C-alpha cells in the first residue's frame, strides 16, 4: 500500500515533466521510467507511467492518439533537444528530417490495427516490449542488475 502510494505520488509529480518514450537504451530507460528514484523500474511503476504518458500525449482527451498528437509530441521533444545541441545548423536539419521520418514510421507501426490512431492497448504493448527487452535477467524489474542485451543489428 505504501509502495503504491509512493509510486502514484511520483507519477503525479512526473506528469508535468516532458513525455518520454520507452528508450531502447537500458540506462536511459531506467532514468526515464524510475519515478521513485530507487534505480529499479517495476512492472507496476512502468504500467502507471505508460498510462500517464498516454494521457499527456492525448491532447484532445478522446482516448486515442492521432498521428498529429503522437508525432507532434515527439517533435516538441526533438526541437528542445536540437535547440541545446552544439551541432551545425546543417547537421541539426539532417537529424530533424531523419527523426521526423522515423516518427511517422513509428506511428504506422504502433497503429497495428491501422485505424488511424494509437489505442491505449497499442501504446501499452509497444512500451511493454521495451520493458521485456531490458529485463534481461527476467526478474520482473529493470535495473542495473540486468545485463545489457547484445545488439543484434
UniProtKB/TrEMBL annotation:
PROSITE patterns, alphabetized: EF_HAND_1 (PS00018), EF_HAND_2 (PS50222)
SUPFAM superfamilies (UniProt xref): EF-hand (SSF47473)
Listed GO MF terms: calcium ion binding
Start and end residues of each EF-hand domain: 51-80
Signal peptide bounds: 1-21
Keyword field: Signal
Any Pfam family hit: EF-hand_5
Keyword set includes Signal: yes
Protein name per the record: EF-hand domain-containing protein
Organism listed in the record: Caulobacter flavus
Amino acid at each position: 500500500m505504501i509502495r503504491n502510494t509512493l509510486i502514484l505520488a511520483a507519477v503525479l509529480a512526473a506528469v508535468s515533466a516532458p513525455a518520454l518514450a520507452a528508450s531502447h537504451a537500458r540506462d536511459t530507460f531506467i532514468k526515464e521510467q524510475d519515478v521513485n528514484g530507487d534505480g529499479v523500474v517495476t512492472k507496476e511503476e512502468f504500467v502507471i507511467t505508460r498510462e500517464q504518458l498516454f494521457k499527456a500525449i492525448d491532447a484532445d482527451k478522446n482516448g486515442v492518439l492521432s498521428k498529429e498528437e503522437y508525432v507532434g509530441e515527439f517533435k516538441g521533444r526533438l526541437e528542445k533537444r536540437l535547440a541545446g545541441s552544439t551541432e551545425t545548423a546543417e547537421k541539426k536539419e539532417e537529424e530533424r528530417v531523419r527523426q521526423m521520418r522515423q516518427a511517422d514510421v513509428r506511428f504506422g507501426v504502433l497503429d497495428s490495427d491501422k485505424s488511424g490512431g494509437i489505442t491505449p492497448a497499442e501504446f501499452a504493448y509497444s512500451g511493454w516490449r521495451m520493458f521485456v527487452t531490458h529485463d534481461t535477467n527476467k526478474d520482473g524489474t529493470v535495473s542495473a542488475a540486468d545485463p545489457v542485451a547484445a545488439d543484434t543489428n
